[in-house]
Structure formats: structure tokens, C-alpha cells
Amino acid sequence: MSIGADPVGDIARIVADLHVRDLVQAYDVDFDVPFRHGLAGGVLQLKQAFRPVPGAGAGRLARRVGAYWCDIVRADVELDLRHGLALVDASRADAARLTELLDPSDEDLFPAYAAARWHDGAGRVLYRSGSHARGRMHFTTGLEVAERHGLWWCLPDQRSNVLRARLEEARQAAPEVMARRTAEIIAEMAAEAARCERAADEAGVPRDGNALPLDRRWREFLRGYSNVLHNLSFALHHDRQPVAALGRSLRSLAVSEALGDSYRQAQSLNHQAIVIGAHHVALHRDPAEADALYRRILHLRWARGRRIAQQQLARRKGGFDGATELAGLLAELAAESAATGGAAGLDIDLLSFTVSCYQGVSAALPDTEEGRAARADAAGRELEMARSVRQVIALPAYKRAYGGAVRPVYSRRIAHLIEQPATGSGDRDRYEEILSLTEESSGRELLDLMSTAALPQLDLAEDEEAAPAAGSGSEAAGGSGEAAQAVPSATGQAAAAPRAEQPEGDEPESDEPESEQPESDGTRGGRRDGLRRAADPAEVEADRVALLERESRFEEQFLRRPLEAAPHDPDVARRAEMFVINHPGTALVRYFTYGQGAGLMLGAFVIRDGLRRPVVCGPYAPVQELINELAARRSPREEHSRRIWRLLVEPLLGDLGDPSTLDHLVVVPTDGLFSLPLHIASPDGYAPGSVPLGAQVPLSLSVSVTAFVTRGRYLLRRQRVSGSDDLAALVVNDPKISGKELVGTGWPEHRMLVAGRLPKGLGVDVRRHRADWDGLAAAVGTRPEFFVYAGHGRYLAEYGELGPFLQINDRQGRPDRLTPFDVALRLRLAGNRLTILGACLAGQGAQTTGGDVVGFVRSFIAAGAGALALPLWRVLDVAMAETGRHLLASSRAAAAQDGVFDVVRALHEHYRATVAEGDGWIEFMPLALYT
Q1: Taking the CB of residue 432, how many other CB atoms lie within 10 A of it?
Q2: Is 612 exposed, middle or buried (0-12, 13-18, 19+ CB in 10 A)?
Q3: Is the separation of the CB atoms in 875 and 836 below 8 Å?
Q4: What is the pLDDT of residues 686-742, one digit of tens each?
Q5: Cβ atoms of 592 and 407 closer than 8 Å
């Protein structure tokens, strides 16, 4: 109808005849397939479908949740992840409420449809954003809803998404595990495809060709079937079955063509081109056929698909024409990103692959002026692309996921600069650029956390009324069939309790001499490792799932309150130089890696009296071997002390000089070096006159030069202390944890608070709380200048970048986990001078493949901790008690004298005294100190 004299009224009458539930149920095949997202979104806005409906029942909630699902789908197709994540966050509470209200006996299936589809859409966006665990949980919940309510037409698509998510997780496993899981998933995908075919055949519904079923539900069913075939083809290709992969993809394409589904057609055509290009010999196909497939994509409606085709056609064309086309595509992406406020910049995959293609094409150009200009342009665009990753989105998980992909860009650039011969002129600028690139590519997320004015903070006390997270439990833990014992967590989510200590025979290191692993007598050599290595894979998986759930809560907060991206300081090299000049006797060592693959190298800057050329320490492989060896042991041995010195310290001595002549040595590790105890490095181990680094020189670590120099972490070496300082501690209820670091320090007992077991020797004036979440809340609530954790920690390689966890109790006294994510979100330590984590392995898990600093190092620094002391191995209780006691007692001695506490020197003096007592000092140097 035409619009007359009353346009508002005419539009209102048109809108009144439209129904939200009909649009939502038609969205997949009538709006998403033909790319009519804008039309549907406009109608939903006119119907006010996105408006909050507090207190509404399932029907009204379903309208809003369904409307949000429609817009989430649009954001996913356009890869507008920032908006997609905001949509997920805005509708999360209503979607959870709707899921709770669903009644399987309800004949109205719309509420169940809206809930199932919302979880599926949320899973897609979260998965693309790097939050894989949360994405899988939403996929699983959506499928459970669809199965429970008989939404048969949704099942193929949703089952396919769950299986694809499981396939991606399987690809991250060890090779033998990956092969087994991939075979299982391929079998499940094939079974699902066969089930779809039987159902369609029994109903007389054609599966391909031009006979399009009129029923909307069957079209949605067939679209899901096409998705099953596409994901099965992807899995077969990954499993090196190209013939079967191509056959399945051709069947998927036929279904998509019958449905007029441009998005899925482009996916299939692109996938077929990849398969033919990689396996044309086995397939007996002409590799040029891939060009024809890409040209077909150019005529489809999916804009991103067309750009992928342009990228690949230009790459295959090569030469100056191909390079020019790729440069033009990059310019187009950059212009669109600027025009849309950065939304296009979120498509890091497209951007990075286009840059990679441009580099490959330009590298093959003749060595002419034009060819060299193209190569220089490609190198510059690669670095620009890498820098854009940090700005695209606020989620730390997203940054880490893509950081692992773009960090090699920095590594290659650094390698290029290092390999250039010295010229005498311009070398200093080159060295400054290397250090600047090193700082720019590592530890950035922690700097973001430090620069954010007010981090989101949750209540430290646990919420016992909160329901377990969707998808948690035995299935979320890997489908083992056995539900682990569940305890309320700090996030209100169910999490399996850590198991009690394993028998000594379960430890893999029983070959160690008894002198290196003395047993506990309650006061002497027991280890703080009550959370021993888990022998049961199900327990390890339960730990990992619990850590993932805590990470999910951490990530969710940054959907609501985005991180403030800390700008990189390009003058960091000069600031570091000015710092050492103004602090005579101080030297900075900044390690870094460069190169890639088997050629990965370790280098270091030594900044003592100015910026000098970087030191080439050697290949990184021997360092990685040492890291792996130490990870398998309870504690370092004498031989490890010598190897750390030889690999990491000895190459620096030419520039560093005699470490013992320094007043302060600050070391910034990189990558796996965060897990190595540099302070125990010595030239000849226990040999007479061989002194470890921590006893030679006052030594501290830092997370980056930027954090130490520019962000003022250097101020944490010497701090003001007084007799009114508060000491708060959490001591777990275990006889193996003496807590003796709190005894004999000279601390006034009325200024002490202990949550948990009161160590022998402390009296009635100490404030007491339980070693649970409430006790921890009370401890940090005093704003303690000094904070101590004395208990158990666990870290396994399977936890990866999720980091370690510490033991804490819930309100019923059952074991729970205190994770780095809990610390970052629930603890605030403003005014803290020193935090000591007296638990095994608390300093492990501090590095990521993307160069960020994580684990308890990140979380306590972000929470406001001052100097941070924590161990890297399974420490002896007596060693922790003696070292912690010395630091605390030194602070009280300083408070009684000039009121200035030098924590770096205090630890150094203790280590000197420890080494002077004779052999065996490694075990009694348990703490690495971060300033």
C-alpha cells in the first residue's frame, strides 16, 4: 500500500498487522537466507521487540529473546563481533530466565524455539570471539532445549554446531588424542547426516535440486542438514580424506543452492577451492578449477565471501597485478574500518590473511625498485594489522586468541632488525625499535588492566543461591558419564572439589633422593603440595572446567565494562635508559624471543649505563627443554641451577659485568622464562664459591619494562612502613601448613588478622576468621599493607593459560578453588606493600602464546598488590616459613628504624644467609619477587 496524508498512522497500521513471533520463527529461512536482516531488524524495532519486559512470563520474554537472536545472527554473519557481544550481554538475563520458565508440556513451542536459537546464536558469537568454553556451553544448552521440546527442524543445525565446537577442541589436543576424537566426531557427523536424510526421505521432502519445500520448518531443517554436510566435509578434510570431503561439500552446496542460501553457498565454494588446491593430485582435478569456484563467489550476496574470493584470486594471479589488487583490498578494508568506527577492523581473520597474501605475492616480485617498494609496503601493513588487534575488542580472551596469531608478526620484524649488520650510524635507532616492538607485543593486557580507572568488582562472598551455569556438570566436563562432586564456587557455579592428597606412589618423581624430598614432621620439611598431581584424568578435566567457568565470569565483566586500551609508549627505550642513569647501580635485563618455528631465538637487552646492542643468547629450543624438564619435577636440582646460568645469565655477562657489583638487577622474562627460577641460577651449583644470582645481587622480576619504568612499579622496592601496618593472612586448615611465616616477626598481634588455622605461637589478640570466602573478604577488607596466603596450590600443563589455583574453603568447610580470575574480580589491595603467596606453583602459568602475562602474577598486580613474592615449584613448608618470616620481620625492623622497607634487599640478604649455611640452598630459596 502507498503512504498517504497520514504517514505515521499508515506505518502504524502496517506494523500492527505484523507479529514478532511470526517474524522470529521465519527469520532463519525468510530473512537470513536472502540477506534481509535490515528489513527484519527494522520491523522488530518498530514493534518495540527489544524493549525490556521486567516480570514478564515466557511468552513476552520469548518475543524479546527471539528479537535479540535475530540481531545476533546479523552480527555473526557480518562478523560485527563487538555489537554481537553487546547483544548477547544485553539479553543474557532474559534468555536465562526464559530457559528456566520453559515447560516441556506446553503446546506453544515459540518460547522454546526462541531460547534454543538464542543460545545457539550466542554460542556462535562467543566462539568467534575466542571464548570457546562459553560458546560450547551455549551450543550445548541450546541443543538440550531443542531436543527436550521436540524442535525437530532446529536439531540438524544445532547438533552440527555442537559437533563442530567439539572438533575444534579436539584439534587442540595431543596428536594421538586428536586423531581418536576426530574419528569419533566424524562418525557422529556422518550419523547425523544419515538421520537427516532418512527423515527427509520418509517425509517425501527432496534434499537437493530445484524442488523447494514450501513448509518453512522443512526449509530450516534442510538448511541445518547443509550445515551438517559442510562441517562433516571440513572434518574429513582435516582428517586427510579429500575425496570424501569434496563429495560431502558438493552435496551441501546442492542443498544451499536449492534454498538460495548465498552464505552457505559461499562457504561451500570456498571450502571446495581449498580442498582442490591442497589435494588436486589425489582428486585428479586441475588446480585452476579453484579459480572458477572463487569467481562464482563474486556473484553471491555475502560481502565477506566476495572479499575472500577477491583475496584468493589476487593471490593466485600473483605478480604486480595481484599485489596491486591485494593492496587495494587492504586499503578498502582500512577505509571501511575508519568509516564505521572500527567495526570492519574486527574481521581480523580477513585482514590478517589478506596481509599474508600480500606479503607472499610481493616476496616473489622481481628485485626492482617497484618490487622492493611492494615488499616494504607489505611489511608495514603487517605491523599495522598486528597493532589493530589490541584495539578491536575489550575481551581479554579475544586478545589472547588473536595475540597468538599476530605476535609472530612482531617476532619476524624483530628478527629482521637484529639480522641487519651494524653500520655505526642508525644502529641506536634500530635497537630502540627492537625494544619498543618487544614491549608493544607483550604484557599488554595487564597494562590495560592497570590503566583502567576502576576494574569491575564482584562481591567476594560466595552467592550460594546462584544456579549452576548452563552446560556445567558431567557433560560440560567432557561427557565422562560421572558427575564430579560439586561444591558452590565463588561465582555461584557448581565446580568439582579438588581431591585430597594422593598417595606418595602417585607422584612421578619417586626416584629423587630422600634428602631432596623430606617428609613432614609438622614443623620441618613437608611440602605445601596437598593438591598433588591428579592421577585421574576426570579430575584434571573437572579442574579445567572449573577454571573455565571462573574465566567466563571474568570475561563477562568486560562485556559490560570494556578495558581501556593502554597506549604503547614508543619512547620506552629512552625512558629505560634515563631510569638507570638516574638510579646508579641498577641494571635492567629485558629478554625477548624472535624468529619462528625451529629457528626461534632468545635475545636480551642489558641496560646498565645506557642502551646497547641486544645480546643474542642462542636458540630457544634448549630453554624450552629445560622448562619442560622442570615442569615434570617437584623442585629444581643443582644441575638446573647450572643450566639456567649457562643459558640465561652467562650470555649477558659481557654487557652486565659482575652482578655482585650491582645495587639492583631487574629482570623482565619472556614466554616460558616466567616459569624459570632465575634467582637460583649459579655458575657451578653447590660448588664452593658458586653463588646463585639471588644471593649475588638484590634481584627482582617485572612483567615489562613499561610496567616497571613508566607505570611506576620501580617504586615498590622501597616503601614507607609503620607500626600501624596491618598484616592479613589466610592459612588453610592442614597440619602440613605450619603458617610459621607469621610467627616471630615482631608484628603486634592486634594488627593481625588470620583467616583459617592459627599458627602455634600466635596469641588471643589476633583477629580470627575461617579460611573461606568470608574470611578472605574480611582479610582484604582491612586494606592490609601486608597480605600472606599459606596453603596449597596446583598447576598442571593441562590448565594452560587458565593458570594455577589455590585452595580455599566454602562456607560448609568443603574445598574450593581460589583462581586468578577470582582475585582479579573480587580482591582489591589498595595500599598493599607486599603480598606473599606461600603455595606450591603459585607463580606458574604466567605466560601465554600471545605474549600476555596471566595467572596470579597478572591478577594480584591488577588487584593492586604491591611487591609480589610467589614460588615456582612444590616448596617445603619450612623454607616458605623461614623466607616469609624474614621478609615480614624485616619490615617491622624498618618500621622501628627509618620507616623505609627495602623488600628487594631484604630477600637478597636472606638468600645470602641461606647460601652461607652450605649445600641444599635451592630448596630454601623458594620465592621469586616481582616489583
Answers
A1: 18
A2: middle
A3: no
A4: 999 899 999 999 999 999 999 999 999 999 999 999 999 999 999 998 888 999 999
A5: no
User: Reduced to 3 states, what is the DSSP secondary structure of residue 817?
Assistant: strand
What kind and span of H or E run contains 463?
none
Q: What are the backbone dihedrals phi and psi of residue 694, each rounded to the nearest 5 degrees, phi first?
A: -65, -20
Amino acid 549: pLDDT: 81
DSSP 8-state class, residue 564: -
Q: Read off the DSSP letter of residue 857.
A: H
Those residues with Cβ within 8 angstroms of residue 874's Cβ, 6 or more apart along the chain or in another chain: 527, 528, 529, 634, 635, 840, 841
What are 824's three cell numbers?
582479579
Looking up cell 602475562 gives 853
In this structure, what C-alpha cell is assigned to residue 606? 642489558
Q: Which of 772, 756, 765 is nearest to 812 (CA)?
A: 772
Confidence band (pLDDT; 50, 70, 90) for 396?
Answer: low
Given a contact cutoff of 8 angstroms between Cβ atoms, the answer to whether 61 and 98 are in contact is yes
Dihedral over Cα of 498, 499, 500, 504: its sign: negative
pLDDT band at 532 (very low <50, low <70, confident <90, very high): low
**Model pLDDT for residues 448-502, shown as the tens digit of each residue:** 787 765 666 777 654 433 333 323 332 222 222 222 222 223 333 333 333 333 3
**Cα–Cα dist 855/923, whole Å:** 23
Pairing of strands 834-838, 718-720: unpaired
767: part of which helix (H) or strand (E)?
A: strand 767-769
CA dihedral sign of residues 719, 724, 730, 736: positive
The secondary structure element, H or E, covering residue 88 is helix 81-101
User: What is the distance between the alpha carbons of residues 226 and 259, in angstroms, rounded to a whole number?
Assistant: 10
pTM reported for the whole predicted model:
0.79
pLDDT for residue 732:
95
Q: Is the dihedral of CA 519, 521, 525, 531 positive or negative?
A: positive
The domains located in the chain, with CATH, are 13-151 (no CATH), 572-707 (no CATH), 717-930 (3.40.50)
Residue in the structure block whose three cell numbers are 559490560: 560
DSSP code, position 843? T
Question: Which runs of consecutive H residues, i.e. helices, occur in 632-755?
Answer: 638-644, 653-656, 693-696, 705
Listed in sequence order, the residues at least 6 apart from 2 whose beta carbon sits closer than 8 Å to its beta carbon are none
**Distance, C-alpha 448 to centroid of its chain:** 14
HEC profile of 285-303: CCCCHHHHHHHHHCCCCCH
Give residue 80's region: left, alpha or beta (phi > 0; psi -120 to 50): beta
101: amino acid identity, one letter = L
Residues 6+ apart with CB under 8 A from 704: 439, 442, 443, 446, 447, 668, 853
Q: Cβ-count burial of 633 within 10 angstroms (0-12 exposed, 13-18 middle, 19+ buried)?
A: middle
pLDDT computed for residue 399 by the predictor: 66
Question: Which positions ≥6 away from 339 have C-beta within 8 Å?
Answer: none
Alpha-carbon distance of 467 to 811, in angstroms, equals 17
Indicate the pLDDT class of residue 445, thresholds 50, 70 and 90.
confident
**Beta-carbon neighbour count of residue 838 at 10 Å?**
32
